[in-house]
Amino acid sequence: MSRLIVVSNRVNPPTGKGDESVGGLAMALAAALREYSGLWFGWSGKTTPEFTGQLAMQRIDGVTVATVDLEEADYDEYYNGYANKTLWPLFHYRADLTAYDRAYGEGYERVNCRFAETLRPLIEPDDMVWIHDYHLIPLARELRKLGVENRIGFFLHIPWPAHQLFTTLPGHRPLVEALFDYDLVGFQTAEFQQAFEEYVISEADGEHVGPHCLKAFGRTLHVGSYPIGMDASDFGKMMKSARAARMRDLMTAATVFRQLIVGVDRLDYSKGLEERFLGFERLLIDNPDLRREVLMLQIAPPSREGVEAYQEIRARLDALSGRINGEFSDIDWAPFRYVNKNYRRDELAGIYCASKVGLVTPLRDGMNLVCKEYVAAQNPEDPGVLVLSRFAGAARQMKEALLVNPNSPEEIAEALKQALAMDKSERIRRWRALFENVQREDVTAWRDAFVADLAGTAEKLKALAS
Ligand code: GDG
């Protein structure tokens, strides 16, 4: 079996003790690597005044981890700049928040070069290299320049935007051309894959030369969709932990005679938090009888605090949550708890379990793992209801959730009302179908499908040529 090298912007593997506070990507990658004698390469999260290219090697929970520090200017121009002020907002349909700055583009290219040069000596002839996410699109091109001929795959964790929107990006064509240095490019959903294919065909004179196989820029590329899943077996173990039980009991006791609605998201404008708060407010305005019956808990640990748009959304959410509580609280009761703090994963599992509704309403999301974790945490005999945005990639799989347009506070309020009133038999019927999907299409299935396709790309090319 070939060794697997995983590359992502940040390398922060969970310690295996349940106390991690890492994002969806890191959880998924750690689970994917554990079974391979794999190597994980990326940024340490630290900066130095000058780039040194010094590698730090460690072994963490069965995974070899190789990290490199970045220079302070890299952090501003590549990470906060091109990745999080240009590509992230644009790919999440926020052209209004997208910054175009030459220094950002240069920083992005520079860091991808530096990553390639630092990684190159670690690559052995039979290794497969799997590169992750929008920070590192040009990395295969830089590795090829250094003579790397190994199979290299790329997976995009966020949406691929519609053709018209994508072409608003200055330098859109070289970015797509760089993707043709991979052997396989994977997307979360068929919809994102189609949007990419449409661009290649109409903007780059590309053509299909076989199933899931595109030719453009004089090269051939395999594409596919691979919906990411959660680590269902690990989560199942966590559900049985004392901490999960303690948190479930605590929340159950805190909501006697009341129904708990819960949301858990990184504090990001793509997650639809403002509209969600307005949806909850609308529920309280339209249904005075429910006011003493419900409690909404929103956990939103801050992220990307160096980017202005994140500071602005945080200030708006502070004001909105204050307004809702000011308007509807009584001396012995408040409807809304808004918490900017990280909780352990096992504690989150307990909170999900104690709640009647999981409210997951991103305006755009590549997949969304929170909705899957919510389902996995439910009591099969008395499960809660999932209210899910139709614009999360997960909506393709989670059809038994109550699907809503996250831009509409009215629709969110209606769905909440329906969820709170839903009888047990319907809740069980919906939950069973959702749980079956979460277990079947888990992170292992995702990894295996992608790695098998990457391993098979050479054979597919041979078959096409004959
Ligand atoms: C990107 C894509 C795609 C959240 N708060 C806490 C906490 N979390 C954990 C959740 C979940 C993860 O973070 C968030 O994952 P998502 O998938 O919802 O969102 P992104 O971070 O934006 O992830 C996304 C994903 O990559 C994977 O491909 O699904 O579309 O945007 O696991 O539980 N974890 C802890 N404390 C918190 O307070 N411990």
Structural class call reads alpha/beta
* Ligands present: GDP-alpha-D-glucose
Number of strands: 16
As residue ranges, the low-confidence spans are none
Radius of gyration over all CA atoms, rounded = 23 Å
Number of helices: 17
Range of strand content: 15-25%
CATH superfamily (homologous) name of the largest domain: Glycogen Phosphorylase B
**Span between termini:** 26 Å
In helices, the fraction of residues equals 40-55%
Most strands sheet: 10 strands, mixed
Q: How many separate domains? A: 2
What overall form do the CA principal axes indicate? globular
The chain-level mean pLDDT equals 93
Going across the biggest sheet, name each strand in turn.
3-4-2-1-5-6-7-10-9-8
* CATH top level assignment of the largest domain: Alpha Beta
CATH fold call of the largest domain: Rossmann fold
The CATH architecture name of the largest domain reads: 3-Layer(aba) Sandwich
